[in-house]
């Protein structure tokens, strides 16, 4: 076996030392060649009053060899074999990927560690499997993926949130101790997005060394970043297994979810561009390669009040505005007049739709739009025929009462009868009607996730993937949106089988600026559902002018979430204008490289997208400007001599309260070269709080 495994991508190197266990020596900038003395030059001293031997921080750290922080594996065999110590038996490298096999012959366990460094994007993925080689059952408590970081990675950026307040970020020192996140909600969750960043002190959007991580899993998870007392540090993530959730029979294996990671020496932009490119090339699959259609979703427009004639009127108005896909949200199925009943009864409500759904769909199609439908397959209302007929299909623990959430319960997808019923219902809807899009909701947590008495979040998550996969196979042209109360199930693994996220139930444009920024570190704009809502936001009661709402929605996968029939003419014209603007730049927004600019004014959010020929930059004034005059917008153009035509394409059209006289260039097209734009910048107008502008740059 070689002393080193060297995986190389376009810009980066991952060097792993292969001794008793594999240990990462370097993950970062590309190393041209491994010097002969590298082994010697990286040998660690042994400190006083510690163990007498060196303890590697391996790819799966072990308690049994003296790693006193979180081990990579935990478990036991009826109280025995709880501190395994592995030895490397094979390392098979194939191109940029390697698979290590390790064995503990005493504990009778075999570990497989897979690492794959994607050449084009520099994104590393890692997962670990364990196989029980013993002849008794092994109760696995934990199997995580560990990746060490250098000591100058001393600042942490993590995510927190809640419903309507997703993807919020927090910074902390990462010098001693650490950070730990445990998600037991049974879905990816609004609260615990499985991602974090560690970087050199003060890393920002545009500068600093950063390592980014995302665990691709839609169930429970555990994610931590730890600094050992010797200064070595690591990130570790994996599925959170409930007590007794994974019991391996002889020769049975457990495989962890993929942990994705990547390095950047150009701040968070370098990470998000790599993750976004990786998602485009390896994660999301669109059935047809076409522009992402602009949506109108009926939820906030009519809620449960479904009248087909009226919905057709909404569709006509939507088509007028330039909408390309019309989605009927919750309220279309039998008995669904409010939140408290009918989930599970996936049959059309013929009282509401006496002529069937067909006339509505035909109308939508005649107006040149696709048709989509809302479903929440994993759920059942207590007041439903499904519950009355199959109370035993509820995911729960017999003998205990479990609280409902939104007056509903979760169905046990591992129950074959239940799984088949759901497949049959969804398959029937997709076969019967011309539906090309499903908005797949999931509005509650798993409180007692029991299948036949045993903990079952893992099984439930795998069964969900299977259900979506089988539907995808049966209806390959149907796209699916992962909604989950908006923002509750956003991760790479669900995105392998869906095409869009409803990023948040909060349509407040100001809140959305933060939510969408947080999400943009991992996901490209074309999968981020972003809708214009009515001027008074339903989730916050805050009012925003259409400029702020239009600009904020325009940057994602755009849609409209309101009743167009009731909107004033001026608003409708504005919706059309923002939809047209979105379509004009959709090729760039949904295909270019996204970036964020470190603002001199902390009350601004500046972000953009670039291709080889053009750039679109949004400046959003989140709150009162920090100073009386705005700082210049300095744009990071790679080529100093290239000339650009610079043009304002959007700014508030109402009167300006803070600005008496506007810079003349706002009404002109400027010609500026890369170094002028980068080093001197463009002087901005003074924006009032909660307003935004967009600038377009075209290479000449
Ligand atoms: C929660 C979703 O996030 C909303 O967009 C809407 O679809 C409702 N559920 C419907 O019940």
TrEMBL record:
Enzyme Commission numbers on file: 3.2.1.22
A GO BP annotation: carbohydrate catabolic process
UniProtKB keywords: Glycosidase, Hydrolase
Binding site for substrate: 163, 329-330, 406, 439-443, 483, 505
GO molecular function: alpha-galactosidase activity
Domain of life: Bacteria
Catalytic activity line of the entry: Hydrolysis of terminal, non-reducing alpha-D-galactose residues in alpha-D-galactosides, including galactose oligosaccharides, galactomannans and galactolipids
Gene3D superfamilies in the record: Aldolase class I, alpha-galactosidase from lactobacil brevis
Coiled-coil stretches: none
Ranges for domain Glycosyl hydrolase family 36 N-terminal: 22-244
Entries under CDD domains matching the protein: GH36
Entry annotation: catalytic residues: 441, 505
Keyword Hydrolase: yes
Family: Belongs to the glycosyl hydrolase.
Protein name: Alpha-galactosidase
Gene symbol of the encoding locus: rafA
């Amino acid at each position: 076996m070689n002393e080193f495994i060297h995986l190389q991508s376009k810009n980066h190197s991952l060097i792993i030392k292969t001794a008793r266990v594999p240990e990462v020596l370097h993950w970062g900038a590309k190393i041209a060649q491994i010097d002969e003395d590298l082994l010697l030059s990286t040998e660690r001293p042994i400190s006083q009053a510690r163990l007498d031997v060196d303890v590697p921080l391996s790819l799966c750290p072990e308690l049994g060899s003296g790693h006193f922080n979180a081990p990579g594996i935990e478990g036991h065999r009826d109280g025995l074999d709880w501190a395994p110590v592995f030895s490397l038996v094979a390392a098979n490298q194939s191109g940029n990927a390697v698979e290590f096999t390790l064995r503990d012959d005493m504990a009778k366990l075999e570990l497989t560690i897979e690492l794959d460094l994607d050449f084009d994007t520099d994104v590393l993925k890692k997962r670990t499997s364990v196989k029980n080689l013993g002849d008794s059952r092994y109760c696995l408590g934990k199997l995580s993926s560990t990746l060490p970081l250098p000591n100058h990675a001393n600042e942490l950026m993590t995510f927190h949130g809640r419903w309507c307040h997703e993807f919020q970020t927090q910074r902390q020192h990462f010098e001693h101790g650490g950070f730990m996140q445990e998600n037991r909600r049974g879905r990816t969750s609004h609260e615990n997005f499985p991602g974090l960043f560690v970087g050199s002190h003060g890393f920002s959007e545009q500068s600093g060394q950063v390592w980014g991580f995302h665990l691709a899993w839609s169930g429970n998870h555990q994610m931590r970043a730890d600094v050992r007392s010797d200064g070595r540090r690591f990130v570790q993530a994996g599925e959170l297994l409930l007590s007794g959730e994974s019991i391996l029979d002889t020769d049975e294996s457990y495989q962890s979810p993929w942990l994705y990671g990547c390095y950047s020496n150009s701040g968070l932009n370098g990470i998000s561009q790599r993750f976004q490119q990786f998602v485009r090339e390896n994660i999301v699959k669109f059935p047809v390669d076409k522009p992402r259609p602009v949506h109108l979703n009926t939820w906030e427009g009519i809620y449960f009040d479904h009248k087909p004639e009226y919905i057709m009127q909404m569709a006509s108005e939507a088509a007028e505005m330039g909408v390309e896909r019309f989605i009927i949200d919750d309220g279309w199925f039998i008995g669904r007049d409010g939140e408290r009943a009918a989930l599970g009864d996936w049959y059309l409500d013929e009282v509401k739709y006496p002529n069937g759904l067909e006339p509505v769909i035909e109308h939508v199609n005649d107006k040149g739009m696709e048709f989509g439908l809302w479903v929440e397959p994993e759920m059942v209302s207590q007041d439903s025929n499904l519950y009355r007929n199959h109370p035993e299909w509820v995911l729960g623990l017999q003998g205990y009462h479990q609280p409902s959430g939104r007056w509903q319960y979760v169905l046990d997808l591992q129950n074959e009868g239940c799984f088949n019923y759901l497949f049959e219902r969804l398959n029937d809807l997709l076969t019967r009607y011309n539906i090309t899009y499903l908005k797949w909701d999931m509005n509650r947590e798993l409180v007692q996730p029991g299948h036949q008495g045993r903990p079952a979040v893992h099984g439930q998550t795998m069964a969900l993937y299977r259900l979506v996969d089988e539907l995808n196979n049966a209806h390959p042209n149907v796209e699916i949106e992962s909604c989950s109360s908006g923002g509750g199930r956003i991760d790479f693994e669900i995105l392998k089988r869906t095409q869009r996220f409803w990023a948040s139930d909060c349509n407040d444009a100001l809140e959305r600026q933060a939510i969408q920024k947080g999400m943009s570190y991992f996901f490209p704009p074309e999968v981020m559902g972003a809708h214009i809502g009515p001027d008074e936001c339903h989730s916050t009661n805050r009012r925003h002018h259409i400029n702020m709402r239009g600009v904020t929605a325009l940057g994602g996968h755009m849609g409209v979430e309101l009743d167009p029939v009731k909107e004033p003419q001026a608003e409708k014209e504005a919706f059309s204008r923002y939809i047209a603007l979105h379509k004009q730049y959709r090729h760039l927004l949904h295909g270019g490289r996204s970036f964020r600019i470190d603002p001199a004014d902390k009350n601004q959010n500046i972000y953009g997208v670039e291709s080889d020929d053009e750039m679109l930059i949004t400046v959003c004034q989140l709150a009162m400007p920090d100073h009386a005059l705005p700082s210049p917008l300095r744009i990071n153009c790679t080529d100093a001599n290239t000339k650009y035509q610079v043009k304002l394409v959007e700014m508030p059209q109402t009167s300006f309260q803070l600005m008496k006289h506007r810079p003349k260039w706002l009404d002109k097209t400027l010609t500026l070269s890369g170094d002028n734009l980068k080093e001197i910048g463009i002087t901005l107008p003074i924006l009032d709080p909660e307003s935004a502008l967009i600038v377009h740059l075209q290479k000449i």
